[in-house]
TrEMBL record:
Keyword Amino-acid biosynthesis listed: no
Region (Disordered): 45-69
One GO biological process term: mRNA splicing, via spliceosome
Entry keyword annotation includes Repeat: yes
Keywords: Cytoplasm, Repeat, WD repeat
Compositional bias (Polar residues): 46-66
The protein's name in its UniProt record: WD domain-containing protein
Organism: Colletotrichum costaricense
Lineage per the UniProt record: Eukaryota, Fungi, Dikarya, Ascomycota, Pezizomycotina
Ranges: WD repeats: 11-44, 80-121, 126-168
GO cellular component: catalytic step 2 spliceosome; cytoplasm
InterPro entries: WD40/YVTN_repeat-like_dom_sf, WD40_repeat_CS, WD40_repeat_dom_sf, WD40_rpt, WD_repeat_MORG1
Gene3D superfamilies per UniProt: YVTN repeat-like/Quinoprotein amine dehydrogenase (2.130.10.10)
Length: 366
C-alpha cells in the first residue's frame, strides 16, 4: 500500500490558524478542529457542501496543463463557543458523547457533543493552571479523568465525575512547559520543553524519565505501548524503546526543519509510517521544501523518507502574511503544517492536517 497522498476534503471556516485536529472515536466518522479564533468546529468530511465556494480545479503537479477535480468542502456540523482564548488541543471520549479542550484560558473545558454546551471547567481558579494549557487527554475507566498539561510546568489530573474544583493529583517534576501528553492504562506520559519525557505510574507513585535533550513538542505511543514516538526541536523524530530508554530509530531529512514551533508527528497506516508537518525557517534547505505546506512521511522500520505531500489551498485562501527571516529579508510565510491526526488512532484509512492557513485538509479515503 502506497502512502495515501490524495486530498479528499477541505475543512473551512476558521478565522485563524488551526492548532488542533482530532477524530471522533472509532470508526472516526467526524473531525474536530480547534482554532486561534477561539472556536471548535465539528465536521463530517464525507458530507460535502454544494456549491463549492472556490475554484473548480487544482493544478496537478505531475503533468503541465492537466487538472485534478476540486477538493470538496466538508460539511460543518456544529461550532462550539466558550473559549476566551485560542484553542490548543482536543481529546474525544471513547463513547463520542464528550470531548475536552484546552488553550489560553488556563482551564480544561469538558463538552457535551450533542448540546454544544460545556459540562465542566477544570481550573481557572486557585487550584488550576497558572498559564495557558497546551495539551489534554481523557484517562481512567469510562474516561472518568481529564489530564491537562500546561505552560506552568505541571500536569494536573481532574475527576470528571466529581464536583470538586481541585485536581486529584498534580505532577510537577518538569522544569519547563508541558507540551504533549499520552495516556495508557494507569500511566501518564508527559513531554516537556526541558527535553525530558516523564512516564508516571499513578497507581505505584513512580516516575521514569527519558532524556531527549532538545525540547519535546510531540508524543505518541505505539499501540502495544512498548515504544513512543517523540518529536523535538532539533529537527528529529525519535522512536524510543520505553523499557530500555534507547533510541530505536531516528527520522529526519536535510530539507525538513522543526526548530521553533510545535509540529506534531503521528503514526499512521497501522504503524507503517511516521508523518509530520513542516515549519518555515529562514533560508531554503537543500531540497527547497522548507515551510512549503508539506507533509513528510518516513517508513517506520527503515527510517527512509517515502513521501513528501503538498497540502493544497483552495483558490482565494492562500496565506498572505509575510515575515522577516534571520537574514533580515522579507520572506513569504507559507502554510506551516503544525497539527495532525490519523483516523482510528493510526489504524484507519485517512488522516487530517491543519496549520497556519486556517484550513484543515483530509487525505486518504472517505
Amino acid at each position: 500500500m502506497s502512502f495515501p497522498d490524495r486530498p479528499v476534503a477541505h475543512l473551512l471556516g476558521s478565522n485563524g490558524p488551526v492548532h488542533a485536529v482530532s477524530y471522533s472515536a472509532s470508526p472516526g466518522t467526524y473531525i474536530l478542529t480547534g482554532s486561534a479564533d477561539r472556536n471548535i468546529r465539528l465536521y463530517n468530511p464525507a458530507s460535502h457542501n454544494q456549491p463549492q465556494r472556490y475554484g473548480s480545479a487544482i493544478n496537478s503537479s505531475k503533468t503541465p496543463g492537466t487538472t485534478k477535480p476540486a477538493v470538496p468542502e466538508a460539511r460543518l456540523i456544529q461550532t462550539y463557543t466558550a473559549h476566551g482564548y485560542e484553542v490548543l488541543d482536543l481529546s474525544v471520549s471513547s463513547d463520542n458523547e464528550r470531548f475536552a479542550s484546552v488553550g489560553g484560558d488556563r482551564a480544561a473545558f469538558l463538552w457535551d457533543v450533542a448540546t454544544a454546551k460545556t459540562i465542566r471547567r477544570f481550573g481557572g481558579n486557585a487550584h488550576g493552571h497558572t498559564a495557558r494549557v497546551n495539551c489534554v487527554s481523557f484517562a481512567g475507566d469510562g474516561d472518568s479523568l481529564v489530564i491537562s498539561g500546561g505552560f506552568d510546568t505541571s500536569v494536573r489530573v481532574w475527576d470528571a465525575k466529581s464536583n470538586s474544583a481541585k485536581p486529584i493529583q498534580v505532577l510537577d517534576e518538569a522544569k519547563d512547559a508541558i507540551t504533549a501528553l499520552a495516556v495508557r492504562d494507569a500511566e501518564v506520559i508527559a513531554g516537556s520543553v526541558d527535553g525530558r519525557v516523564r512516564s508516571y505510574d499513578v497507581r505505584m507513585g513512580r516516575c521514569v524519565t527519558d532524556v531527549i535533550g532538545a525540547s519535546v513538542t510531540s508524543l505518541k505511543l505505539t499501540r502495544d505501548g512498548k515504544a513512543m514516538l517523540v518529536g523535538s526541536l532539533d529537527s528529529k523524530i525519535r522512536l524510543m524503546d520505553r523499557e530500555s530508554g534507547t533510541c530505536l530509530k531516528t527520522y529526519a531529512d536535510d530539507g525538513w526543519r522543526n526548530e521553533e514551533l510545535r509540529v506534531q508527528a503521528v503514526l499512521g497506516s497501522k504503524e507503517k509510517y511516521v508523518i509530520a508537518g513542516d515549519e518555515l525557517t529562514a533560508g531554503t534547505g537543500p531540497s527547497g521544501l522548507n515551510g512549503d505546506g508539506k507533509i513528510w512521511a518516513w517508513d517506520l522500520l527503515t527510517g527512509k523518507l517515502v513521501a513528501t505531500v503538498r497540502v493544497p489551498c483552495p483558490e482565494g485562501f492562500e496565506p498572505k502574511k509575510r515575515m522577516l527571516g534571520k537574514d533580515g529579508k522579507e520572506k513569504e510565510r507559507s502554510n506551516v503544517i503544525s497539527c495532525m491526526a490519523w483516523r482510528a488512532d493510526g489504524w484507519g484509512d485517512q488522516f487530517c492536517v491543519g496549520g497556519t492557513s486556517g484550513i484543515a485538509t483530509v487525505f486518504g479515503s472517505l
